[in-house]
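ingest -> validate -> predict -> emit
validate: passed (alphabet ok, no gaps, 291 aa)
predict: started
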Amino acid sequence: MADQPGWDHQPGKVLEHGERRYRIEAGLHHGLFGAVYHCRDEWGGALIARVLKPFSRSYSRIREAWLEEGEKLPAVQHPNLVFLHDSFELDGVYHLISERVSYRLEDYITLPTWRGEAWFLTVAASVLAALDRIHREGFWHRNLHPHNLGCRGALELATPETAPAGTIVLCDFGVGHLLGNVDVFGNQLAQWLTPPEFLKPSAYGGLDHRVDLYQCGLLLLSVLLGRSPRFNYAEVEAGKAQKLALELKSSYGPVLARALSPKVDERFPSARAFWRALGGGAFGMEEPGGR
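emit:
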């Protein structure tokens, strides 16, 4: 198995996995970790093909682990997760085939008509329900931000008090899991998304599923602000995101501040506890930290 596989697909190329076939349409992104393409299955279904390239390791070293873990990913399904249709190795590289969504949350939150407070619980419920599902299966996402939230249908911004027309779904599940902590946090993420515990574990704690709760706090902060705040590494360690949450003129500010604590053990223990502290759902408000 070559350590530098050829992962650059041309339009028209057909990927085969057993009886399944996918035709590459167009390239969307090429980077350190591989490439993303529009593709279609033989039924005409619009899909996304992600071709993963391990940046900091040789493929031969991680191949067996990816094959083993990749078999588990399609079984983890939830209404608020983009549907993962297939995962397989082909021509010396690893592929993930997933549902294609036409809209991204980041396309909306910066619009003048966006009202974050009105949409906050809808977005929070979608993200935290998806995280609850993947965490219970032993996976993390590791790369939560507004571009990685898709919408099955356009959001009706003319009446923001109503529920969105389409389901909000978490995209790119599985990518961060296969790439691992070092690749995702060290090479892929923008500084503002990097969790403090990656920068200094001795001061803030070890890496676990609460990375996702920290990044969810950042995402929901973006929803309320109408923009994604940017921090450098020094500001991440100084807890600038947490301080910004506490300055919000919103009842959700203190809850977000707990999720954004630089210290891992001061955050919520689970996505479900985070949701309950926000007061969402049919059962009403619980004290922050409830399990």
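The chain is about 35% helix and 20% strand.
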